[in-house]
Design a protein that fits this description.
Shape: globular
Largest sheet: none
Helix content: 55-70%
Number of helices: 5
Strand content: under 5%
Structural class: mainly alpha
Distance between the termini: 15 Å
Number of strands: 0
Protein backbone atom coordinates (compact mmCIF):
# COMPACT_ATOMS: atom_id res chain seq x y z
CA UNK A 1 0.00 0.00 0.00
CA UNK A 2 1.14 3.57 -0.54
CA UNK A 3 1.93 5.97 2.27
CA UNK A 4 -1.60 5.62 3.61
CA UNK A 5 -2.11 3.72 6.80
CA UNK A 6 -4.70 0.97 7.02
CA UNK A 7 -6.78 3.22 9.29
CA UNK A 8 -6.73 6.06 6.75
CA UNK A 9 -7.68 3.72 3.93
CA UNK A 10 -10.52 2.20 5.94
CA UNK A 11 -11.75 5.70 6.77
CA UNK A 12 -11.71 6.62 3.06
CA UNK A 13 -13.69 3.46 2.31
CA UNK A 14 -16.27 4.33 4.97
CA UNK A 15 -16.57 7.93 3.72
CA UNK A 16 -17.02 6.68 0.16
CA UNK A 17 -19.80 4.35 1.28
CA UNK A 18 -21.41 7.17 3.26
CA UNK A 19 -21.40 9.23 0.08
CA UNK A 20 -22.89 6.41 -1.98
CA UNK A 21 -25.65 5.91 0.59
CA UNK A 22 -26.39 9.62 0.98
CA UNK A 23 -29.86 10.87 0.12
CA UNK A 24 -28.09 13.86 -1.47
CA UNK A 25 -26.56 11.72 -4.24
CA UNK A 26 -28.73 11.12 -7.28
CA UNK A 27 -29.07 7.51 -8.45
CA UNK A 28 -27.24 8.19 -11.73
CA UNK A 29 -24.35 9.79 -9.84
CA UNK A 30 -24.17 6.77 -7.52
CA UNK A 31 -24.06 4.40 -10.50
CA UNK A 32 -21.28 6.44 -12.12
CA UNK A 33 -19.23 6.54 -8.91
CA UNK A 34 -19.65 2.78 -8.54
CA UNK A 35 -18.51 2.32 -12.13
CA UNK A 36 -15.32 4.26 -11.36
CA UNK A 37 -14.49 2.13 -8.32
CA UNK A 38 -13.65 -1.55 -8.04
CA UNK A 39 -14.55 -3.89 -5.16
CA UNK A 40 -10.88 -4.60 -4.50
CA UNK A 41 -10.44 -0.91 -3.60
CA UNK A 42 -12.18 -1.85 -0.35
CA UNK A 43 -9.87 -3.77 1.98
CA UNK A 44 -12.30 -4.16 4.89
CA UNK A 45 -14.54 -7.18 4.10
CA UNK A 46 -17.84 -5.71 5.28
CA UNK A 47 -17.19 -2.47 3.42
CA UNK A 48 -16.37 -4.41 0.25
CA UNK A 49 -19.66 -6.35 0.55
CA UNK A 50 -21.59 -3.11 1.10
CA UNK A 51 -19.99 -1.58 -1.99
CA UNK A 52 -20.78 -4.65 -4.08
CA UNK A 53 -24.42 -4.55 -2.97
CA UNK A 54 -24.77 -0.80 -3.56
CA UNK A 55 -23.30 -1.32 -7.03
CA UNK A 56 -25.58 -4.29 -7.73
CA UNK A 57 -28.69 -2.30 -6.78
CA UNK A 58 -27.97 0.20 -9.53
CA UNK A 59 -29.97 3.38 -10.03
CA UNK A 60 -32.45 3.07 -7.19
CA UNK A 61 -33.30 6.11 -5.13
CA UNK A 62 -31.57 6.52 -1.79
CA UNK A 63 -34.68 5.67 0.23
CA UNK A 64 -35.08 2.34 -1.57
CA UNK A 65 -31.32 1.67 -1.32
CA UNK A 66 -31.42 2.19 2.43
CA UNK A 67 -34.41 -0.14 2.75
CA UNK A 68 -32.91 -2.95 0.65
CA UNK A 69 -29.29 -2.81 1.80
CA UNK A 70 -29.60 -4.28 5.33
CA UNK A 71 -31.29 -7.48 4.08
CA UNK A 72 -28.79 -7.88 1.27
CA UNK A 73 -25.85 -7.43 3.66
CA UNK A 74 -27.36 -9.94 6.10
CA UNK A 75 -27.78 -12.44 3.24
CA UNK A 76 -24.08 -12.02 2.44
CA UNK A 77 -23.14 -13.19 5.96
CA UNK A 78 -23.16 -10.03 8.07
CA UNK A 79 -26.28 -10.32 10.27
CA UNK A 80 -25.08 -7.68 12.74
CA UNK A 81 -24.79 -5.01 10.06
CA UNK A 82 -25.71 -1.56 11.41
CA UNK A 83 -26.96 0.82 8.74
CA UNK A 84 -26.55 3.81 11.05
CA UNK A 85 -22.77 3.51 10.72
CA UNK A 86 -23.02 4.53 7.07
CA UNK A 87 -25.74 7.10 7.11
CA UNK A 88 -24.67 10.66 6.78
CA UNK A 89 -26.19 12.97 9.35
CA UNK A 90 -29.68 14.14 8.49
CA UNK A 91 -28.40 17.66 7.92
CA UNK A 92 -25.05 17.69 6.17
CA UNK A 93 -23.21 20.74 4.99
CA UNK A 94 -21.62 21.25 1.60
CA UNK A 95 -18.28 20.89 3.35
CA UNK A 96 -19.28 17.43 4.64
CA UNK A 97 -20.31 16.30 1.15
CA UNK A 98 -17.06 17.70 -0.27
CA UNK A 99 -15.10 15.67 2.30
CA UNK A 100 -16.99 12.50 1.31
CA UNK A 101 -16.42 13.18 -2.40
CA UNK A 102 -12.75 13.86 -1.68
CA UNK A 103 -12.44 10.45 0.00
CA UNK A 104 -14.05 8.75 -3.00
CA UNK A 105 -11.68 10.56 -5.37
CA UNK A 106 -8.67 9.58 -3.27
CA UNK A 107 -9.80 5.95 -3.33
CA UNK A 108 -10.14 6.14 -7.13
CA UNK A 109 -6.69 7.70 -7.43
CA UNK A 110 -5.15 4.96 -5.31
CA UNK A 111 -6.80 2.42 -7.57
CA UNK A 112 -5.28 4.10 -10.64
CA UNK A 113 -1.84 4.21 -9.01
CA UNK A 114 -2.06 0.52 -8.16
CA UNK A 115 -3.01 -0.28 -11.77
CA UNK A 116 -0.11 1.76 -13.10
CA UNK A 117 2.40 0.16 -10.75
CA UNK A 118 1.09 -3.31 -11.72
CA UNK A 119 1.46 -2.48 -15.39
CA UNK A 120 4.96 -1.02 -14.94
CA UNK A 121 6.78 -3.12 -12.32
CA UNK A 122 10.06 -1.64 -11.12
Amino acid sequence: MSALSIAEHTSMERDTLRLLCSVLVKPATRVELCRLLQPDSFFEPLQRIIFEEVRALGAVDAKQLLQLLPGRITNRGFPDFEMEDLLTPKLVSEQDIEKLFHSALRLMNLEEQDEESSANPA
